[in-house]
Amino acid sequence: MRRIALLVVVVVMVANLVVCTLPPSPPADGQTAPVFGDKIPPGYRDWKLISVAREKGDLNDIRAKLGNDVAIKAYREGKLPFPDGTIIARLAWSYVPLEESKEAFGRLQSYVAGPPTKGGVQFMIKDSRKYASTGGWGFAQFNDGKPTNVAVNSCFSCHVVVKARDFVFTRYAP
Fold it and tell me: How many whole angstroms separate alpha carbon 28 and alpha carbon 115?
């Protein structure tokens, strides 16, 4: 009986893995519009820093997470769920060694942002009514300033693991 239960668990896990790694289907009408709009929020590069992160593995990048005023206020107050109007931006760059650090320290020691990654700029926007089926969050990605097709489930499915933090991975680093 235990073997059957274990087999069922393994089959379910493998099926979930396969589903999560499938590329998103294109929209039925052939459009390539992001989930919540076709324009980058104005002035996002002037937003305040939430945190920075290093992503290893296939992505191998460094990231800055920025937040609009609504996001920063919620982070500072520890407010969950985030209020509607919260927007979080993710900027990512390749992770490259600073060659001068080899001369200064006798080995490569420092790493800096290189060219932006192919993931472009990504945004999460909180609108609990409009995006009720995805925890209240809409997602968008822009490459070279142009919107890309981002399927809601391709973003949201990864964020489910942080449901207790209102589906947001990034913690505030004041």
Answer: 34
